[in-house]
Amino acid sequence: MLPESTNDAGGTSGGGLAVPMAWLCAEYLADEVLRAAALVAPGSLEYRAGLQALALTVHLAEEPGGPAGAWAPCRVDEWLRHTAYDRPWPPWVEERLAARQAAVGDGPDLALARTAWSRLRDTWIRAADLDGRTDPEGPVDEAEQIWLPAWKLGLPLAHLSLHLR
After folding, report:
1. So which domain of life are we looking at (predicted)?
2. How many CB atoms lie within 10 A of CB 75?
3. For residue 65, which phi and psi values (nearest 5 degrees)?
4. Which of 27, 38, 160, 161 is the most buried (most CB within 10 A)?
5. How far apart are CA 146 and CA 78, in angstroms?
6. DSSP state letters, 45-92
């Protein structure tokens, strides 16, 4: 692979591979945040769900060219807003993927983002029921588990990890 992105009209430079730099940067930032928060073990399903949810949020919140000033407070605040519990995250992801498709067409970054979204949406994880609690202020009963799409577990993990950064 070439060490730089090849964003010309054909998606390649001199027949080389297009490198998904924007996605790789978003995934790197997400990994950095999750490892620093140390809420779940790297390599676990929960970690992977949080990584993909945060990488998608970072990637889709940015301009198509990739993150600029990634750790600027306004960027982190925006990511926190998008990952907040009361936000409709799945429709936002779908809208941003469609807008990115319309703006720049197919490319390696969009392909990886679509794959991440597909995995988050289609993978189900057995976990504690965070939505069906009778006492929202009380502790979570870890014994009461249900099947959740991976994004429902990854998104709160991403949000909390951002707060702990």
Report:
1. Bacteria
2. 17
3. -75, -10
4. 161
5. 30
6. HHHHHHHHHHHHHHHHHS-TT--SSTT-HHHHHHHHHHHSTTS-HHHH
Distance CA 161, CA 165 (A): 6
β-pairing verdict for 145-149 and 124-128: antiparallel
Alpha-helix residue ranges (DSSP H) falling in the chain:
21-37, 45-61, 73-83, 89-104, 108-122, 150-164
Between CA 75 and CA 106 the distance in angstroms is: 25
Strand, coil or helix: 161: helix
| 69-80 confidence digits (pLDDT tens) | 566 778 889 999
Give the other-Cβ count within 10 Å of 119's Cβ. Answer: 16
Q: Which of 120, 114, 77 is nearest to 96 (CA)?
A: 114
